Amino acid sequence: MLLGEHRHMLDDKGRLTIPSKFRDALGERVILTRGLEQSLFVYPMDEWEKLAQKLRALPFTKADARAFTRFFFSGAVEAEFDRQGRITIPKPLLAYAGIEKACVVIGVMNRLEIWEEGRWEAYAAAQSALVAETAEKLIDFDL
């Protein structure tokens, strides 16, 4: 399971070091794609395939299903870690997420998310005020 929050800097070639504890869980190859809220999602290959199966089951006759599938898959690239544990993030993905240098890598169960640092801080601050209300709506057991 991918957990935690780590702050990193992108190098001049668009490479990002992924923490070793995440690399161990991800495997050698990953899929990197546009995520939600202008973040990037990083999936281990097995989790990507599970997601692809779910999206394949969506009815192609529905405009929302086609739009989401196009958005998600057209931005996807396969990436491998180099010897220093870095992945290269393509420029279109960096532009989508607004990442120039400082970023935050977070573990979200079955995927990583990569956020531009300021965007993550603003998002986290806004969500912290809503977490109790959201938990009440989504979770029907005591934490």
Q: Give the strand order of the largest sheet, numbering strands 1, 2, ... along the chain.
A: 1-7-8-4-3-5
Radius of gyration: 16 Å
Please give the share of residues in helix: 40-55%
Pick out the low-confidence regions.
Answer: none
Q: Output the CATH class name.
A: Alpha Beta
Describe the structure.
- This protein is an alpha+beta fold and about 140 residues long.
- Helix content is about 40%, strand content about 30%.
- It is built from 6 helices and 8 strands; from the N terminus they run ββαββααββαββαα.
- β3 and β4 (about 40-45) form a beta hairpin.
- It is globular, with a radius of gyration of 16 Å.
- About 25% of the residues are buried.
Tell me the layout of helices and strands.
Elements: E1 2-9, E2 15-17, H1 20-26, E3 29-34, E4 40-44, H2 45-56, H3 63-74, E5 77-80, E6 86-88, H4 91-97, E7 102-109, E8 111-116, H5 117-128, H6 131-138
Antiparallel strand pairs: 1-7, 2-6, 3-4, 3-5, 4-8, 7-8
